[in-house]
Design a protein that fits this description.
About 60% of the residues lie in helices and about 10% in strands. It folds into two domains: about 70 residues, no CATH class; about 80 residues, Histidine-containing Protein, Chain: A, CATH 3.30.1340. The protein contains five helices and three strands; from the N terminus they run αααββαβα. The N and C termini lie far apart (about 95 Å). The chain is elongated and about 90 Å long. The chain is mainly α.
């Protein structure tokens, strides 16, 4: 019982201190105005956050609806459009070095350095899965190693 009375006393003291802080004759008006402004700002921030979440959800739903209505992916008409599609859909998700992409008759050639072999294989896999790609020539390599298309030339140069 004694603990409950102590808790009530602490709560009453805190409420009294808060009321004295807000209704202080010297600075209470300013403090109330600040509390009102902070409260409104908090409400505005929360409303914006909810609006952003709703907009994101709407976009996701529109994407799902589009995929349901158009189950077959769009195949680019020419090689330049295919390069743009690969850059945006595959390499846009890859954090790391800049890779060179060449496409001729829908055969994609990948060149550049990647941190490890796993990333090279993942990029090749993702490019192969892109609609319109017929084949992939993977010339990606790790830093400090020669590109696969240069290895024979380097061996011939340094017998």
């Amino acid at each position: 019982m004694r603990g409950a009375n102590l808790v009530k006393l602490i709560i009453a003291g805190a409420v009294g201190a808060a009321l004295a802080y807000v209704f202080d004759p010297a600075r209470g008006r300013r403090r109330r105005a600040e509390l009102k402004d902070r409260g409104r700002a908090t409400v505005r921030r929360e409303v914006r956050a909810v609006e952003r979440q709703a907009s994101y959800g709407k976009g996701r739903a529109e994407g799902v609806i589009h995929k349901v209505r158009h189950p077959r992916p769009h195949v680019p008409e020419d090689d330049e459009t295919l390069v743009d599609k690969i850059r945006s859909e595959v390499l846009g998700r890859v954090d790391g070095p800049h890779l060179t992409i060449d496409v001729y008759d829908r055969v994609v050639t990948l060149r550049g350095e990647v941190p490890d072999e796993r990333m090279a294989q993942q990029v090749e896999h993702d490019v192969r899965a892109t609609p319109g790609v017929v084949d992939v020539v993977n010339l990606l390599h790790q830093p400090g190693t020669p590109a696969p298309n240069k290895a024979d030339a380097l061996r011939a140069e340094n017998p």
